[in-house]
Specification:
about 425 residues, alpha+beta, 2 domains, 5-stranded mixed beta sheet, 3-stranded antiparallel beta sheet, 17 helices, 10 strands, binds iron/sulfur cluster
Length: about 425
């Protein structure tokens, strides 16, 4: 039986902003599946006439190929908020039936309540405005707490996922999960070095662990972790990093490819990507041609992109904790480097580094040409990125496969992205 829970120190202070939230998650395009039990509970209870009407409009039964976990869906699409969301920004279902009336995903978001190798792990996604506010205020960085489980939490349902101890039989690298976490979180929080150096060092660790996993060298993995935990090679990595030339055009074009997912999204996502293109001097054009020659071409003004990146660096001065907290929070919350169990350690690491690169690219495009950026705009961009890219296994796999098939697959090549 679980007796303790590991969580970041901001966890208990999280509160949904409800009607005061500017980026309300019920207005975003999500696919929210409902289990049969959840569907029955939602539709079987007595509701007001208005809510019944809204539920008919906003919840759709899966008629063909239903699965126990996907018996129905709550429909929220681009430009179409959840039908149960009231004009005051509050959920009518929750108002009438209380928190328990909601399906598990709506009850949980943005909380991730997971069980990892027999231990409870809780955190929150940065795809939520209130969470980004909490991370912004934590200038001293995130601390992690190991707390005794309260009796009323023992039967808490799991909002996200469970990786049981037995899985170590089929994925032996999981045996070293806690050492990996201590090492990589420690590196990401080591403020003696700039954050890009810390990200590249964490990527180096994942690269080596990925190599050891592919060669099934479990003893070697244990020895590497023990030695690196005792003495992470950050100074060496920093020197290597400094000596490298910047290849900004390659980083730019790769991030433009990632941004295509936003172009086809909600009006908020489209507006964000348009602003980024405009401020960084990026234009897309239809490329005439046949087969692989056809598609979208990218025109860019490298000087404008570099100016945008410089503006971001200037703005981040004294605020470096923001990106550190976002990346540490995501590393912890996504159970890296086992975020996507269908991928290897290094492939998960590729996504992690690409996310960091894309985050900087978008934030550079949010910086105005003159004056300070509006914090609400910066926060909104962060929420959009984490909501879009970290809650979809398909998008993660798409980004990783783009990088692998375009020759960005080694640590040296990932450094180009991290450097920007
Ligand atoms: S984004 Fe966060 S704060 Fe806003 S409505 Fe959703 S859970 Fe609440």
């Amino acid at each position: 039986m679980d007796i303790s829970v590991l969580q970041p120190d901001y966890y208990e202070t999280f509160h949904c902003l409800a009607g005061a939230c500017l980026d309300n998650c019920c207005r975003e395009s999500w696919d929210i599946p409902l289990t049969k039990n959840e569907y029955m509970k939602l539709t079987g209870a007595r509701r007001s006439k208005e809510l019944e009407g809204r539920m008919r409009e906003g919840i759709k039964r899966v008629r063909r190929g239903e699965k126990p976990s996907e018996y129905a869906h709550i429909l929220i699409g681009p430009g179409r908020p959840c039908a149960m969301l009231g004009e005051d920004g509050l959920c009518l279902l929750q108002k009438e039936g209380g928190h328990e009336a909601l399906g598990l995903i709506c009850q949980s978001f943005p909380r991730a309540n997971q069980r990892m190798l027999g231990k409870r792990v809780r955190s929150c996604s940065a795809g939520c405005e209130a969470v980004v506010e909490l991370l912004w205020k934590k200038k001293e960085g995130i601390r992690f707490q190991n707390l005794p489980l309260r009796p009323n939490e023992r039967n808490l349902r799991y909002g996200n996922r469970e990786i049981p101890v037995e899985m170590e039989q089929t994925r032996p690298a999981l045996r070293y999960f806690w050492e990996m976490e201590a090492l990589c979180v420690g590196i990401l929080q080591n403020r003696s070095y700039p954050l890009p150096v810390r990200v590249t060092m964490a990527a180096e660790v994942l690269d080596e662990l990925g190599r050891l996993e592919r060669s099934e060298d479990w003893e070697g993995m244990g020895a590497y972790l023990k030695a690196t935990l005792a003495a992470p090679q950050l100074a060496q990595r920093a020197a290597h990093w400094e000596a490298k030339p910047r290849q900004s055009a390659l980083a730019l074009v790769t991030n433009v490819f990632f941004s295509f997912s936003l172009r086809g999204g909600s009006s908020r996502e489209q507006a964000l990507v348009q602003q980024v293109y405009q401020r960084l001097g990026i234009q897309l054009e239809d490329r005439m041609g046949e087969g692989e020659q056809a598609g979208l071409g990218v025109r860019y003004q490298l000087d404008r992109y570099l100016q945008g990146m410089d503006r971001l660096e200037q703005w981040l001065h004294g605020k470096e904790h923001l990106l550190e907290n976002l990346m540490v929070n995501y590393y912890f919350q996504s159970l890296q480097p086992f975020d996507d169990l269908s991928m290897g350690i290094w492939e998960n690491g590729i996504f992690f580094a690409a996310l960091y690169s894309f985050l900087r690219f978008v934030l550079a495009g949010v910086m105005p040409e003159e004056g300070e950026p509006d914090w609400a705009a910066v926060r909104g961009a962060i929420v959009t990125i984490f909501r879009k890219f970290t809650h979809s296994a398909q998008l993660k796999q798409k980004m990783v496969s783009y990088l692998l098939s375009n020759g960005v697959q080694t640590l040296e090549q990932m450094d180009v992205l991290i450097k920007g």
